[in-house]
């Protein structure tokens, strides 16, 4: 089983589509839909189930023996997000916790970090 965080995003869903071309359908998508239309990205891909990010560690606790690989693309990539506490907790701490868990359980993990958040106040540096 492959767990893809951020799987409902543009890049995550394209990766799931790629996995589908390889005959891989035993995929768990971890993402939030919120109020945008990102659910549309999953219309043409096949996956087994979807979980919310806040459920990931309880899911892993119950199913870690079934997971072969974690592909971590889940992060806040909004260029307008101003809450640095949220960005740090979501993009740094969550990623580190997921990495540490995967290492402890000997699950292969691929971190796909996309840094597209640009802070206006640092643009002059």
Description:
The protein has 125 residues and is of the alpha/beta class. The protein has one domain: Rossmann fold, CATH 3.40.50.720. It is 34% helix and 15% strand. It is built from three helices and five strands. It has a five-stranded parallel sheet with strand order 3-2-1-4-5, covered by helices on one side. The longest helix has 22 residues. It is globular. The C terminus is likely disordered.
Summarize the SSE layout with pairings.
Layout: E1 2-5, H1 10-21, E2 27-30, E3 49-51, H2 56-63, E4 69-72, H3 84-105, E5 108-111
Parallel strand pairs: 1-2, 1-4, 2-3, 4-5
Give the % helix.
25-40%
Strand percentage:
15-25%
Q: How many beta-strand runs? A: 5
In CATH, what is the class? Alpha Beta
Which structural class best describes the helix and strand composition? alpha/beta
Let me know the largest β-sheet. Answer: 5 strands, parallel
What is the number of domains?
Answer: 1
Q: State the strand order across the main sheet.
A: 3-2-1-4-5
């Amino acid at each position: 089983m492959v767990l893809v965080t951020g799987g409902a995003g543009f890049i995550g869903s394209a990766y799931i589509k790629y996995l589908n071309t390889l005959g891989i359908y035993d995929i768990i998508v971890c993402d939030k839909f919120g109020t945008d239309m990102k659910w549309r990205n999953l219309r043409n891909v096949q996956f087994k189930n979807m979980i919310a990010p806040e459920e990931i560690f309880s899911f892993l606790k119950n199913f870690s023996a079934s997971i072969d690989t974690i592909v971590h693309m889940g992060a806040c990539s909004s260029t307008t997000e101003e809450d640095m506490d949220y960005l740090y907790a979501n993009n740094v701490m969550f990623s580190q916790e997921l990495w540490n868990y995967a290492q402890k359980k000997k699950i292969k993990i691929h971190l796909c970090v996309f840094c597209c958040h640009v802070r206006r106040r640092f643009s002059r540096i």
